[in-house]
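residues and backbone:
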Amino acid sequence: MTTLLLYSSQQSQWVAIVTWVLLVALLLVSVILIVWQYRKGKELAYEISQLGKIQKNNVEYDFVLKSMRLSTWHIDPKTREIIFDQDFRDQSDTFVPSMGKELVDAMPEQDRLRVMKALEDLCQGRREEAHEEYQIIQPHSKKTYWSESYAIVAEHDIDGMPTRIVGTSKRIDNRKALEQELVDARNRAEESDRLKTAFIANMSHEIRTPLNAIVGFTSVLPDVQDAAERQQLLDLVHENTQKLLVIIDDVVNISMIEAGKEELVMSNFDLNLVLQDQIEHFSKDLKPDVLMRKQFASDQQFITTDMNRLLEVVKHLLSNAVKFTAQGEIVVGYDAPSSGRIRIWIRDTGKGIAPENLERVFERFFKVDEFIPGAGLGLSICRVLAYSLGGSVNVESKIGEGSTFSFEFPIQ
């Protein structure tokens, strides 16, 4: 009995020891699990925070691309394939090629060869970055827009050859338009400077010529006793005074019209009477072998326009015809009105104008023949006056056969 009790007591002690060992082990495992879970929780929190940052960075990245209207793309140097990743360019009427062949084929030939060489140099490792400006032809409208691309080698293999090339593109139509405006402004400034120089040179010559005659003839008048000779000198003084007035009037007229200081004064009148008066006036200045005649579309033609401006145009065109026609005829006429417009024309058999000068004759101070008197402003004034009336002045001419100047404008 005593032995049995002793054995039972020992067994209870062993059970207690094992229980305590298990409890301690369980406690240690629990502590380890708590520590592990805590660390895992921190790692998870860190990963979540990093993911949030990545998402935030992606949003910011997309926002930057969108605000700059950029597209991003990459090239596989082995296949030469260009793939667009994101595109935030203005999509209004814009062709967005998705693959490399589409992109290159959409370029004009002069741009295609240059861009292909730049991309090939990148893929071959001959350069690390590239910057190109080129045009893209839109297939549906055949219009073009300007694009600018930057590319750089992003990854290399162990031999230093490119394995990934990344790039960006954007439309630059506004910048190109601004550049063109700056070029045009510079050209206008240079042209203005050229015109100013030409104005001074021409005016000094054209004004000095009649002034010299006026001063010379008036200085000898007191010494001339013969009445006929005095009258001849007075006539020459008067003629040169009129030439001087015409030059000054031309300069004043073109300046006032371009400054917008002269308003249109509309009136209704018979075009036949106005043209007939000018024919009679200029017939007195014809050279001996020249005949002037008319060719009107009707016996009466009432129109409503600014008569003074019309008269100025007709006078300058007739003056030119008389000045450059040595033989043959000058015909003044007009066609029947059509679609609310009428066309007056003056045809001569003068020396004619070379093809390369047909538009230049309307430039200020341009003279086909430097030996013919005049400031070179008449035809320029005609075109300005025609534009102010909503019309146009044009010329057709052949060397040795004569010229036809036409003045077309709206009527009421």
